[in-house]
Amino acid sequence: MTEPLAPEALDGWVAEAAELLGIDPAVVPVGTVLDLARRVAHGVARPAAPVTTFLLGLAVGAGRPDDLAVLADRLGDAADARTPEA
Q: How far apart are CA 55 and CA 78, in angstroms?
Protein backbone atom coordinates (compact mmCIF):
# COMPACT_ATOMS: atom_id res chain seq x y z
CA MET A 1 0.00 0.00 0.00
CA THR A 2 1.31 3.45 -0.82
CA GLU A 3 1.64 6.25 1.69
CA PRO A 4 -0.91 9.10 1.50
CA LEU A 5 0.23 12.12 -0.45
CA ALA A 6 1.42 14.93 1.80
CA PRO A 7 -0.25 18.30 1.11
CA GLU A 8 3.07 19.90 0.17
CA ALA A 9 3.75 17.10 -2.32
CA LEU A 10 0.33 17.67 -3.90
CA ASP A 11 0.95 21.41 -4.11
CA GLY A 12 4.33 20.79 -5.69
CA TRP A 13 2.91 18.32 -8.19
CA VAL A 14 0.05 20.65 -9.16
CA ALA A 15 2.53 23.48 -9.74
CA GLU A 16 4.80 21.26 -11.82
CA ALA A 17 1.97 19.70 -13.85
CA ALA A 18 0.32 23.09 -14.45
CA GLU A 19 3.60 24.51 -15.71
CA LEU A 20 4.05 21.56 -18.09
CA LEU A 21 0.53 22.18 -19.42
CA GLY A 22 1.01 25.94 -19.68
CA ILE A 23 -1.65 26.89 -17.16
CA ASP A 24 -1.57 28.97 -14.00
CA PRO A 25 -1.57 26.66 -10.95
CA ALA A 26 -3.55 29.29 -9.06
CA VAL A 27 -6.61 28.53 -11.20
CA VAL A 28 -6.56 24.80 -10.46
CA PRO A 29 -9.53 24.02 -8.17
CA VAL A 30 -7.80 21.22 -6.27
CA GLY A 31 -10.42 21.02 -3.52
CA THR A 32 -13.30 20.81 -5.98
CA VAL A 33 -11.60 18.11 -8.04
CA LEU A 34 -10.63 16.05 -4.97
CA ASP A 35 -14.13 16.32 -3.51
CA LEU A 36 -15.68 15.18 -6.78
CA ALA A 37 -13.22 12.28 -7.05
CA ARG A 38 -14.04 11.19 -3.49
CA ARG A 39 -17.79 11.32 -4.09
CA VAL A 40 -17.51 9.35 -7.33
CA ALA A 41 -15.11 6.78 -5.87
CA HIS A 42 -17.52 6.13 -2.99
CA GLY A 43 -20.77 6.37 -4.92
CA VAL A 44 -19.85 4.67 -8.19
CA ALA A 45 -16.49 2.89 -8.18
CA ARG A 46 -12.89 3.91 -7.55
CA PRO A 47 -11.86 3.72 -11.24
CA ALA A 48 -14.71 6.09 -12.09
CA ALA A 49 -13.08 8.93 -10.10
CA PRO A 50 -10.23 9.83 -12.50
CA VAL A 51 -12.45 9.28 -15.53
CA THR A 52 -15.12 11.60 -14.12
CA THR A 53 -12.63 14.32 -13.23
CA PHE A 54 -11.26 14.04 -16.78
CA LEU A 55 -14.80 14.44 -18.15
CA LEU A 56 -15.22 17.54 -15.97
CA GLY A 57 -11.98 18.90 -17.40
CA LEU A 58 -13.20 18.28 -20.94
CA ALA A 59 -16.46 20.11 -20.22
CA VAL A 60 -14.60 23.06 -18.72
CA GLY A 61 -12.07 23.09 -21.56
CA ALA A 62 -14.89 23.03 -24.09
CA GLY A 63 -15.93 26.50 -23.04
CA ARG A 64 -17.69 26.08 -19.71
CA PRO A 65 -15.03 27.19 -17.19
CA ASP A 66 -17.45 29.35 -15.22
CA ASP A 67 -19.62 26.28 -14.67
CA LEU A 68 -16.88 24.16 -13.04
CA ALA A 69 -18.37 24.17 -9.52
CA VAL A 70 -21.91 23.68 -10.85
CA LEU A 71 -20.85 20.81 -13.09
CA ALA A 72 -18.78 19.21 -10.30
CA ASP A 73 -21.79 19.40 -7.96
CA ARG A 74 -24.07 17.91 -10.61
CA LEU A 75 -21.67 15.00 -11.15
CA GLY A 76 -21.17 14.55 -7.41
CA ASP A 77 -24.91 14.51 -6.78
CA ALA A 78 -25.35 11.86 -9.47
CA ALA A 79 -22.58 9.78 -7.88
CA ASP A 80 -24.09 10.19 -4.41
CA ALA A 81 -27.41 8.88 -5.70
CA ARG A 82 -25.85 5.62 -6.90
CA THR A 83 -25.05 2.46 -5.01
CA PRO A 84 -21.36 1.59 -5.37
CA GLU A 85 -20.58 -1.51 -7.36
CA ALA A 86 -18.98 -4.37 -5.51
A: 14
Nearest to 16 by CA among 28, 5, 32, 6: 28
Indicate whether 57 belongs to any domain: yes
d(CA 61, CA 59): 5
Report which residue type is found at 53: T
Tens-place pLDDT, residues 29-86: 999 999 999 999 999 999 999 999 999 999 988 887 778 999 999 999 999 999 766 4
* Number of structural domains found in the chain: 1
pLDDT of residue 22: 94
Write the CA distances from 9 to 28, 41, 81, integer angstroms. Answer: 15, 22, 32
Answer whether residue 7 is part of any domain: no
